[in-house]
């Protein structure tokens, strides 16, 4: 897999960095936020990769950044890869703006509709509410952000 | 059966089911547009029982973090326990003893049988086969008895630990496994006669709620519901974990036996076949438990996990279940995020309901084996 990943570096140069994912033998492609959407579309279509299955889309907050990870699998090429990018955490009541991946992997909608209200992310370019909506009520903030303050009525 | 709407001469009406309705597989709402008794369009709304498990995981220390993991899906809690344990073990570089890995496999397969029997019982109720559902629940009790014998609990087992399992195999457990697998194998033939060979049951499921290969791709459907449509993806085969590579087992797929490939009936058949495979796997695994420790180390309350991350995936009874764990080196997880099969599989449901009659809605939903606990985790 590693030699194949050189194609990503050749195509996107300094916009990507490739390293091992944790202790595993799998790889993570860390992409600049501005290029991440273009790289995602390229990984979906490029004939050596064909990442057709978005297995999971996760978000976590670390060092005042929202870290977005796309866990990709190619059924035809039998590859796995993590595509990662990050964006600064906006103010407590402000939304982070992230391009939606629904146009690349339609299934991203399941993850985006859930993560949007919990992390305060606006996924731009999405088709809007799909056939399965989330009704989490109102937390008066974004509960999965580290700055979220627990109040008595929503204390764990 | 699908009727032609032109012959019904009815106007479009709007219906709202749920969020609490005994015919639905969980707490959620369906808003439907129907023409006569034909569903034109369906939209789902979930989130009514969101448990906040991912947030509460950040508030717990590593020692107690296994507790909310069980609640991802109480009916088949061991899959989530296993994924979480595997992820943290990878970050900590913990080697799980082979004996513990085999015990985990045995319990995971018992969990799968129990979950599939629960599925069959629920499906029997919505198709009007209530007596059969009681027979099936009788066998599921045997599985729960075995889990209780081993773990002390019947649901929310909390039995897997970092580095292994909480206790060694209980006295008499292996004999009881052999006895129970033999009995369930016999009873499966009984279900076959009562349900699979019964035209009244077949007619409710054959040709209904057909999942096409395109829908699997678009909605990322996994597990028995995808395998019923011919997709062979099974994490236990593709990326074996926890001693699965040591045992030979078959991955059943849909054949369109009574209707077409990927219909509700195929989803039943695939789960019945998976129970058979799990019974065989169990009977082989309990005779091949290697000697050694059942736990690599005993975790203390002040346990910390080094900074790092891992992503572990398992084949839960409902499909691909994965867990992304991030640690900053402190006493609490930075993030525990789940990818659950029902979260994806429910996305396909509104598409499957378009064009069916209202009476078939609960049957199609039951045939998908959705766990709203996984969706609203």
What attributes does this structure have?
heterodimer; A: 156 residues; Beta Polymerase, domain 2; five-stranded mixed beta sheet; two-stranded parallel sheet; 8 strands; B: 377 residues; alpha+beta; Cytochrome-c3 Hydrogenase, chain B; three-stranded antiparallel beta sheet
Task: Give a short synopsis of this structure.
The complex is a heterodimer of chains A (156) and B (377). Chain A is of the alpha/beta class.
Please describe the topology of this protein.
The complex is a heterodimer of chains A (156) and B (377).
Chain A: H1 2-12, E1 16-20, E2 27-31, H2 33-45, E3 53-62, E4 65-74, E5 79-88, E6 96-99, H3 108-119, E7 121-124, E8 132-134
Chain B: E1 12-17, E2 29-35, E3 38-46, H1 53-59, H2 66-70, H3 77-92, H4 98-126, H5 130-151, E4 160-161, E5 164-165, H6 173-196, H7 199-205, H8 213-219, H9 224-227, H10 235-238, H11 264-286, E6 308-316, E7 319-327, E8 335-339, H12 341-353, H13 361-367, H14 372-375
Antiparallel strand pairs in B: 1-2, 2-3, 4-5, 6-7, 7-8
Can you offer a commentary on this structure?
The complex is a heterodimer of chains A (156) and B (377). Chain A has helices at 2-12, 33-45, 108-119; strands at residues 16-20, 27-31, 53-62, 65-74, 79-88, 96-99, 121-124, 132-134. In chain A, the strands form 2 sheets. In chain A, strands 1-2-5-4-3 form a 5-stranded mixed beta sheet. A two-stranded parallel ribbon of chain A has the order 6-7. The longest helix of chain A is centred in the first third of the chain and has 13 residues, at 33-45. Chain A has one domain (2-154): NADH:ubiquinone oxidoreductase Nqo5 subunit (Beta Polymerase, domain 2). Chain A is an alpha/beta fold and 156 residues long. Chain B is built from 14 helices and 8 strands. In chain B, the strands form 3 sheets. Chain B has a 3-stranded antiparallel beta sheet with strand order 1-2-3. In chain B, strands 6-7-8 form a 3-stranded antiparallel beta sheet. Chain B has a two-stranded antiparallel ribbon with strand order 4-5. In chain B, helix 3 (77-92) runs antiparallel to helix 4 (98-126), helix 4 packs antiparallel against helix 11 and helix 6 (173-196) runs antiparallel to helix 11. The longest helix of chain B is centred in the first third of the chain and has 29 residues, at 98-126. Chain A binds chain B through residues 21-24, 52-56, 58-62, 69, 71, 75, 82, 105-107, 109-111, 114, 130-137, 143-144, 156, and chain B through 42-48, 50, 52, 54-56, 59, 90-91, 93, 217-220, 233, 308-311, 313, 320, 322, 324, 326, 328, 334-335, 337, 339, 343-344, 346-347, 349-351.
């Amino acid at each position: 897999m590693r030699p194949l990943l050189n194609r990503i570096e050749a195509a996107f140069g300094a916009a990507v960095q490739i390293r091992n994912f944790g202790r595993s033998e799998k790889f993570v492609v860390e992409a600049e936020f501005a290029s991440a959407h273009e790289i995602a579309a390229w990984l979906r279509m490029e004939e050596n990769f064909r990442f057709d299955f978005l297995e999971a889309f996760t978000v976590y907050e670390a060092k005042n950044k929202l870290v977005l990870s796309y866990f990709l699998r190619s059924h035809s090429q039998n590859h796995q890869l993590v595509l990662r990018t990050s964006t600064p955490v906006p103010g407590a009541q402000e939304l982070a703006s992230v391009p939606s991946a629904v146009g690349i992997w339609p299934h991203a909608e399941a993850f985006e509709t859930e993560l949007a209200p919990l992390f305060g992310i606006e996924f731009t370019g999405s088709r809007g509410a799909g056939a399965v909506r989330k009704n989490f009520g109102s937390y008066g903030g974004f509960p999965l952000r580290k700055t979220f303050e627990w109040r008595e009525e929503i204390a764990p | 059966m699908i009727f032609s709407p032109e012959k019904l001469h009815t106007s479009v009406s709007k219906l709202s089911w749920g969020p609490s309705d005994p015919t639905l597989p969980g707490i959620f709402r369906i808003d439907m547009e129907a023409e006569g008794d034909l569903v034109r369009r369906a939209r789902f709304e979930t989130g009514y029982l969101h448990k906040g498990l991912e947030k509460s995981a950040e508030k717990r220390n590593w020692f107690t973090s296994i507790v909310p993991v069980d609640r991802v899906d109480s009916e088949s809690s061991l899959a989530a326990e296993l994924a979480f344990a595997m992820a943290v073990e990878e970050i900590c570089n913990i080697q799980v003893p082979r004996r513990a890995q085999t015990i985990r496999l045995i319990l995971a397969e018992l969990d799968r049988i129990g979950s599939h029997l629960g599925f069959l019982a629920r499906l029997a109720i919505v198709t009007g086969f209530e007596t059969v559902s009681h027979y099936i629940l009788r066998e599921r009790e045997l599985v729960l008895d075995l889990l209780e014998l081993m773990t002390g609990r019947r649901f929310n087992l909390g039995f897997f630990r970092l580095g292994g399992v909480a206790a060694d195999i209980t006295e008499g457990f292996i004999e009881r496994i052999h006895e129970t697998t033999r009995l369930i194998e016999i009873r499966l033939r009984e279900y076959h006669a009562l349900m699979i060979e019964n035209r009244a049951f077949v007619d409710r499921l054959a040709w209904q709620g057909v999942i096409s290969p395109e829908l699997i791709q678009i909605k990322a459907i996994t597990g028995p519901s995808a395998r019923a449509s011919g997709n062979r993806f099974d994490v236990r085969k593709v990326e074996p974990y926890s001693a699965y590579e040591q045992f030979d087992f078959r991955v059943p797929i849909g054949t369109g036996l009574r209707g077409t490939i990927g219909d509700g009936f195929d989803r039943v058949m695939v789960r019945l076949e998976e129970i058979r495979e799990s019974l065989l796997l169990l009977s082989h695994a309990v005779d091949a438990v290697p000697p050694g420790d059942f736990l690599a180390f005993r975790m203390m309350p002040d346990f910390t996990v080094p900074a790092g991350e891992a992503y572990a995936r398992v084949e839960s009874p409902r499909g691909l279940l994965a867990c992304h764990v991030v640690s900053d080196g402190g006493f609490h997880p930075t993030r525990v995020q789940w990818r659950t099969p029902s979260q994806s599989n429910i996305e396909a449901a509104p598409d499957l309901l378009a064009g069916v009659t209202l009476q078939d809605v609960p049957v199609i939903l039951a045939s998908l084996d959705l766990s709203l606990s996984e969706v609203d985790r």
